[in-house]
Amino acid sequence: MAKTRIAWTGHRPKDLPDWSDTKFRDTLEAIAPDERWRNAHFIVGGALGVDSWAAKFAMTHGVTFDLHLPFTPGVQSRGWSDFDKELLEDSIKMASEVRIIGDNHYDVAMYQKRNISMVDTAVQVFTIWSGKRYGGTWNCIQYAHRVQKPVFNLITGKVRRVTQP
Known about the structure:
Rossmann fold; alpha/beta; globular; seven-stranded mixed beta sheet; 7 strands
C-alpha cells in the first residue's frame, strides 16, 4: 500500500509561542493513532520549528520521511544550538531520502525552491500557520494552492483546497 506523502511547513519557534515539539506531538497523536501515521510519509524541510518537530515525530513514531534542505547542512544549521544541530544530523541519518536544493552558500531564494520541491512530491500539505500573510510559510501555502494540493492547518483544524487560505 502506498503511503500518503505529506509535506510540512510552518513558522519558526519564535513565531509560534504557544507551540513546541511536545504540543506538536500531542496534536498529531490526538488526530490519529501511531499506526495511522505509519501509513504516512513525511516530507520535511530541515528548519527549526515545524520542520524539526515533524522530523522528530517521524523518528520517534516509525514514520518514514524525506528531508529537503535548502542548503548543505553546515549552511542550514549555522548559528544553531548543539541540540538543534544534532537533531538535524539525526534527521539526515534517518531520512529515506535527503535532497539538497542549493549549495554551500546562503541564498534566501533556496527556501522557496525547497518548498516547491516538498510540495511537488507531496499529495497534501500540513502546516502550523498563524495567519501571517508574508514569509516562507505563506509562500509555501500559496504555492500549494496554485498546484491544487490540499492544505491542513493544525492551528485551525481546517483543510483548504484551491481557495485562498
